[in-house]
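Sample intake — Phosphate-selective porin O and P
Collected from: Owenweeksia hongkongensis
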Amino acid sequence: MKITIFKFTAMCVLMGVSQLFAQEKFTIQPELQNFRQPGYDGLNVFEEPKNDTVPFDGLKVRVGGDFALQLQGINHTSDSALANLGTNFNLPTANLNLDVQLADGVRMHLRTYLSSRHHNEAWIKGGHIQIDKLDFISDGFLSGFMDIATLKIGLDEINYGDAHFRRSDNARAIYNPFVGNYIMDAFTTEAFGELTLQPGPFLAVAGISNGNLNQSVNIGTKENKLSFYGKLGYDDQINNDLRLRLTGSFLASTGYDNGQYLYSGDRSGARYYWVMVKEGAADNFRSGRFNPGFAKFNAFQINPFVKWKGLEFFGIYEMAMGDQADPDVTPMMEGGSFTQLGGELLYRFGSWDQFYAGGRFNSVSGNYTENSPDISINRFNVGLGWFFTKNVMVKLEYVNQMYSDEGWTGSEAHFNGGSFDGAVFEAVIGF
């Protein structure tokens, strides 16, 4: 009961305070160094830039939040009996965000999910320390290197691929032009350390994580191993009208007992509620998504981004290859591979590009092992959006997702002949 009262109060505070901050310029919130602004001003921002001129004049605490509410009208069908869906509102989701400037070039981020699809209680998503200067060691220490370098250490989302910068993170849906995330949703929160270099228009990322979503010193018979990831890229504003970005990322999960969470690490829940859930079954909070389920694997993702005036294109080419289990223990479980393709085309218009319209295509195909039959998923989205202010927006989309090929067996047999389609309206606040 106390948790429910706390959640309700916190959500009301977020909604009320957002009206103070939902202006075209922040007048109350403190300015932080190397910080991605929530709302419209944070659109199409990927890694935090290194061209910040915000001076440090003491410790600053920025309290922010996110709120999202969907009205969903989706139908689904398959060769099996599915849950009976109607048109209604989903449970509102909310985040509480704390960003603290601790020292010159040192900042902390902490996000708490106040309400989510999967957890009806408040819980911490993760947090990290971001270091852009080493002046706390001595004034100007390695300043030439730190002019292009950023260090991140914590337990939070890792920087694999570019799609995670545009995805909905529970209630933080203001950067996502559509309601849903990609089918293979590359997102995980793990204990990590990460170095980012941004010399001019070039980009390099090197990171290491412990491969665990839930942390425990009691490992039992598991042999935990590290995961490694990185990114290389180019990002340049060619002129006032044209921006080009191209990145390639990889992740190597080196053990069979941990590191398998890249496509199942989001514990807040998918955005299309109850779709393709069997009749009489409990809700699957990952409904509409797909996880290859590899125990040990390698993945890479290539992301082009082009913005010309009001026209934007963002793309995904991704492959994940690995084993479902250790073949020395469980034979015939190796050699699986899945490919994801995605592309979204948007046009932003209005006096300050506050409106947009666009579409997205997303597909996943492949097999669980080298001897298993293929499976395929295809999704189409078309949508519209409107930023009332830089911190308040609404979006409306139509989604159609289809399941095909012969590999849907066992616990996934209800995907045979399966599809869902319909409209979703979402209102979002982020400040």
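Post-analysis note: The chain has one domain: 2-430.
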